[in-house]
TrEMBL record:
This is Phytocyanin domain-containing protein. The keyword Zinc-finger does not apply. Pfam families: Cu_bind_like (PF02298). Residues 1-100 form the Phytocyanin domain. Keywords: Disulfide bond, Glycoprotein. GO terms for molecular function: electron transfer activity. Residues 122-146 are annotated as: Disordered. It comes from Citrus sinensis (Sweet orange).
Length: 146
C-alpha cells in the first residue's frame, strides 16, 4: 500500500492519513510504502504517547531516506510520524492497525427487504357510502403478520 495513495507529505487535513488508514484492512505480510523526498521529510516509528504528543523522544525506528517500505510482520497498532518542524501537528502522522493473516473485514449489515403495499388499487374506489372492495386487488390467501 502506498500510504495515503500519494506521497508522504503535509496532508490537506490533519486527519487525512488516519482516515486513509481506517479505510484499509492491513494484515501480517502486507507492506506499506512511505514515498517522500529525503531532503524534505523523514519517517519515525514511535510509541503511542509520542504519537499523541507529536514528539519523537524515543523513536523505535528512524528512516531518513525515501521511499521507505515497511513490512507489517506482526499484529498490533503501529505509529509513524514526521518529526521535522511542525509537520506532525499539521497531520503528517498515521496509526496503522495490523490484523492477523486470517482476519476478515466485518460483514456488511443485511439490507432491509423492501416493503410492498398489501393492497394495490386498480382504479379509484367507488363513491358508494358502504365500504367496498370494488376496485381493489384483495389477496386470496391470508396476509402474513407484519
Amino acid at each position: 500500500y502506498w500510504v495515503g495513495d500519494s506521497v508522504w507529505s503535509i496532508p490537506p487535513t490533519t486527519n487525512f492519513y488516519n482516515d486513509w488508514s481506517s479505510s484499509h484492512l492491513f494484515r501480517i505480510g502486507d507492506s506499506i510504502v512511505f514515498d517522500f523526498e529525503t531532503e524534505l521529510y523523514n519517517l519515525m516509528q514511535v510509541t503511542a504517547l509520542d504519537y499523541q504528543t507529536c514528539k519523537a523522544n524515543n523513536p523505535i525506528k528512524v528512516l531518513n531516506s525515501g521511499p521507505a517500505t515497511i513490512v507489517l510482520n506482526e499484529q498490533g497498532v503501529f505509529y509513524y510520524l514526521c518529526n521535522l518542524s511542525n509537520y506532525c501537528d499539521l497531520g503528517q502522522k498515521i496509526s496503522i492497525i495490523v490484523h492477523g493473516k486470517n482476519s476478515f473485514p466485518p460483514a456488511p449489515s443485511p439490507a432491509a427487504a423492501p416493503v410492498e403495499p398489501l393492497l394495490t388499487p386498480l382504479f379509484a374506489p367507488s363513491s358508494s357510502p358502504e365500504p367496498s372492495t370494488d376496485g381493489w386487488n384483495v389477496p386470496d390467501s391470508p396476509l402474513p403478520a407484519p
